[in-house]
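Margin note from the TA: students keep mixing up input and output lines. Inputs are the sequences; the output is the structure of the whole complex. Example:
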Amino acid sequence: MKTINKDKEAKKTAMKELRGLRKNLIAAASSTMKIQKKDMAAIKTFLKGEAATIPEISARIDMPTDKTLWYMATLKKYGQIIEGEKEGAFFKYSLNEPEKTQEKAEA
Amino acid sequence: MSEKNQNVGVYICYCGGNISDHVDVEEVRNRVEKMPGVAVARTEMFMCSDPGQEMIIEDLKSGKIDRVVVASCAPSLHETTFRDAIKRAGSNPFIYEHANIREQVSWVHHGDTATDKASVLIASATAKAKLLKPLEPIRVEAKKHTTIIGGGVAGIKTALDIAQKGIEVTLIEKSPVLGGQLNNLDRLAPFGEKASDILQELLDQILNHKGITIHTDCKIEDVTGYVGNFSLDIVTKPDNNNINKKITIDTGAIVMATGSVSYIPFDGEYGFGRHKEVITLKDLIHILKENKSSGTALEVNGKRIKNMVMIHCVGSRQIPGIHHPKENGQLNEYCSRTCCAAMLNASNQIRANFPETGIYEMYRDIRTYGRGQEELYNQASKNKVVFMRYDADAQPEITLGSSSDYPLLVKIKDSLTFNEQMEVPADLVVLATGIEPDDVSDLASMMKLPIGTDKFLLEVHPKLRPVEFPITGVFLAGTCQAPMDVGEACNAAGAAAVKASALLSKGYIELDPFVAQVDMDKCQGHGACVEACLKEGALELTEVNIEGKIHKKARVTAAMCLGCGACAAVCPEKAIDINGWALKQYEDMVDAIVSDGFAA
Amino acid sequence: MVSTHIKNFDTLVVGGGIAGLQTALDLGDQGYRVAVVEKDASIGGKMIRLSKVFPTLDCASCITTPKMSAVAHHENITLFTYCELNSLDHDGSGESQGIKALITQNPRYVDPVKCIGCRQCEYVCPVHIPDMEQGGLSATKAISIPFSNAIPQLPIMDIENCMLCGQCEKACPTNAIDYFQKPEEFTITAKTAVITTGFDLLAVKDNVQYGNGRIPNVIDSLQMERLLAPHGPYNRVLRPSDGMEPDSIAYVQCAGSRDKSMGVSYCSRVCCMYAIKQAMLLSGSLPLADIIIYYMDIRAFGKGYEQFYQNAKAMGIEFVKAKVARIDKGENGSAQVRYELQDGSGIATTDHDLVVLSMGMVPGWNPEPICPVSKDSDQFITSIKPKISPVLTNMDGLFVAGAAAGPKDIVDTITESGSAAMEAAKFMSKSLMEN
Amino acid sequence: MSLVNLDFAEELKEYSGDTALECFNCGTCAAICPLVNDNFPRRMIRYIQVGAREKILENSDELWRCLHCGLCTHTCPREADPGEIILGLKRFVLANWRKS
Amino acid sequence: MFNPRDIIEILAANVRQTKSPFGIPKFMVNTWYKDHSLPKEGEYLLFTGLMYQFSPFIETSTQYLEKYEDTKTADYLKYAKWVPGYISGMGLAMMTKGKEKRKAGQPLKNIAYLLQKSKVNFGYRPDLDNYSGILLYDMGDQKGFVAHAKKVAQKLKNAGIKKIITTDPHTAYALKELFPKYTGISFDVKPYFELLNFEPKDCGLEVTLHDPCFFGRYLKASDITRKQLSNMGISVTNIRNQGEFTSCCGGPAESISPSLSNEIMDKRATELEEPGKPIIAYCPICLGNLKKSGAAVEDLSTLLARHA
């Protein structure tokens, strides 16, 4: 038991060291992640009400269309969004409800 | 054959949309799951990928299943892939059945029809799979010897490669000399090596190689046997005593390297045969090779050439409705690949050595695709060759010129000059005649080799098996397959050689065991099967001593059996059947297809 | 870190694309022991990233995955993926003129033995990064398996974008995550080596005339392959700026080929055919779209290629003989191509929803200063006998195949790989006889 | 119908560099030209290639719309130097005028 | 469009008679140096080629020509060459406002100041500073150009000049590339901005730089200007057509077709205005022409002199 604890301690210290070494990278990744989380949440919140096209979503949540599409492709890949009917030259997207687990992702 | 219910695993492939765009794969899976005997039914984006194969292996290992059906593309593509996977799971590879739901379903049907047909095909495959039994491949001894048919550059190179691997080689050439088309060439595009030097280097090697036997001036009379044990009867031309020598060659593998010939324009094509000033590229290369010109202009038949016109794509890239087919109806729709570089190469030689000879090249597309070839085109421009471009439906016209200086006038609607009609006075017109395969239809039918619509020999698949025929043990290399330049033909030769070497290196070959098998108890020795057999030597009646009595019984030579089933069809006792394709299996398959349950 | 770890083989194949796989198979089938060293995390090279391939329109995966799988399971072949080749030269030590290569195994931060490829780490990872396997058009995670049919099925952790949050470690059912993994060096010795390092495309961002990659909806041909591929970023063809289904798609040929001012002076050999192929696939998935190919010469020279080209014309794909001089940003996300009307009627500017640049091919690997093998002025590896054996290099026992020796299509690459395997085998049986 | 004439390129040598025949008529120069929205300068270069001397003289005014900004030469895939060719044609035409 | 033949013959006659394409005598044009005490001798000779000095006259003549383009009057132009250059040129000179003339000299004063501040050892000799003849070359009057260039080069050579500083791209190109080729006389030619040498600084400015064709493309000097600017903490916006891919301002077309010139100028001005930053030119023709479009543009030397 004691050795396990000792290993755990050693690992903890090592992780701390590693975090120190990669401080800048971690900070950058964290802020990227936070923005992504917020952006994707905005898309998903909007889609709770209705299915919509990329330009519609973009206009509503004030995000460039290319960025919206990038998120949409990603959310779709990980099974959180599904593609619906086409409206004009654009496809409508809606939430995958009930949100299936990611096992389905990218079959 | 045991009738006990087997546990079949069915694996259905999306083929990345190739199948799933038209077949509702998940619906098929739901239906399959309910079929009798099916233990598991699974789907995967690419069943042939590693995760797909792993799925099958796991199910086999865990004992969930003992028969496998994969529903995907044509079995010609991936049957071996899945058999190998089953082998890796420690099972017998012949407990496997394939349902083709791509070529036979998704590529030709849409919507519900497609989903229904896929279900039916899988039901039928499952019915068959239940009756599959483990089989052992047929092992035949293979003669460590290869026969190359054709002594051009591809044939010589194949022979050398195989011989240098320690396998004996016989090279057969119908003409009196080796070298094929290389004998007709001079400086080779794009780097300018002399064809004769290349040939000499190859000949030096091949003539000194102890493992290579060469027969020139001979004809192939017959080809028999099967992979590892082919037999070729050849006859040499009459010798001084007017005697034809007959030779039989026993060989393990055969490489077709029968090469190509130059297209001969029909009478009047671009004035060919009507005006002596119209010649072919082959003629021009011959003139350059002889090099009888002195001074600053190219001389042809003692005449100084001032303006020569070179016309590309003669006998190549022909279009139905625009070009005239040959007498046999053949239209060469393919690109001959080598002529652009060869023309530019000749132009550069002429412009460099004979600056007084002006050159006009009339082309459709300049196809200098290969390494060093675009530079050849660039160089031709630097050498002041004038290029003019015509459309396929507005070919240049050759007419008589009005001056004695220029006996011909070539008219062209030149798309580079804004589609204006242009006239070029010429005292020589050179036609870039393309490549046609040498006619080997007799050999091909003797050996049952496929020929494509372009009349070239046809490989199994350009990427999966580019140098192989469907007949195991027969390969192809060089321009009998498609137009190629010397380097490409040598690469093809290497590729064919590596396949032949791998095949023969073990000394034996394993063949699929889908051959006729006789039930000795049932066989009454009628001999109907022997009569029906399509492959001479595959079936015979032998006398068997059973408990002191001599009985006639049919015997199968497995290595020769085609597995065609002609014998099974005629046996009154149903004493002969095909392994893996038994009559009962057919019956069950038909039952599965006609039963209503499996389609929606 | 110097390692004395030495692995011995008959042949070292550098590059695990289609050329390397075919070479390895052709050698392995003859009983030679082969090592395949690949810089990427998966074997399969460019081909596994393609949609369908000309002229048969087989899906690229259908041809590549079985070869990948065959290599991975071959008893005579060993794979080393995600590896850096540090040096490759004759082995000076001893009598033999064998090959010696120093290699670094890059850390995946995942234990390859423990990992079962379940992708739980990828699902829980909170950081999204542009998925370069998808031309950057969609995202993957900071730890992920490169693509669905990758071999091996091992994830890679991108430490540049990792927050060290520990979620993947928690999710991993087999304790395979190892944040402390270090690069490992090892040595491979072999009798022969085959260079099959393939090609790269010139970068759109370096092309001023076509907008330095800053004009929306101007993409390169490999990105279009992804849009058309079954696992593509959108699972259909949409234009990247706003997800519109394009109505008008243009191909710009010789974008950086046959043009020293823009890239390279040679012909990249495959662009005509893949543009025609993509155009055909597009007209299948977008039957109403206008598809135009701007070209200088159509180079459909291979077996069945010319017929393929004529079929495309018959299908209504438009071929315009012109070299696009420049591309500008048009209205509403369109890209505007400018070219000369060669019939003499002036200059045209045409708007397209999506423009695909058939970028030129350049070598995927520079031997300098890793290996003393020569390159030509075109920067591809020199073939010393382009007629009798195009796979021979100026280094004894070292051969080359595929696009490493100049742009080449898959058919020609596979044939050449067989030829390289043959030369390597001959070289080994020769030295066997001499010894 | 016009008859091609190789001698014209020779005649021009006196006035300009000798690169007109290196052009492979891709049309980049015409389409990149910021000054003239026409088939210029390729039209002129092609006329040199096929020796259409009279056509050049007929359309000679067009030459002076070129300001030698050099963009065509800079982007020419063949390094045929269209800018210099046009300059040479200006010299040729001017010499012709002055002769007349 | 005017008949090029007429224009060329006028220019050629002017250069022959007055050494100036516009027929304006040098003493009326080259006045900028008079308020300064510039050394006459130095390692380098400052050689303006009179291009900055000519620019206001070009503008006046263009306004004049613009009125007549594509009118019947345009045809009378062919008679203009029979009018002695001095007379027509003086007329042009008189029509041009004195204020404009003084303004045109300002960049040169700035350049002299910048060079002095950079401690460049140079001299200025008005007697050696002549028009390079470049316009004749561009127009295809090879003979006229060579005859003129030979005189100019010979004079410099006779004065023992080896190193030259130029102020504009056209003169730089003529001296650097054309003189050696056509007169057989070579000099070590440097544009002034290559020789500047200031302490690094942070002005915190951003500008849009219009590279002239001859500096950007022919002489590949656009990196040097960027380096100088970055040294002063002035960043340059990235526009589509810059450096070797710069786009013509339309200036040189003025004499043949003012309307064409205007069209090109407007297109370029729009491009330059897009980033919304101050526009900097470094060629008198570009400067004059872009100003005409109404764009807020100033000369590189002015910007540098303000911040150096």
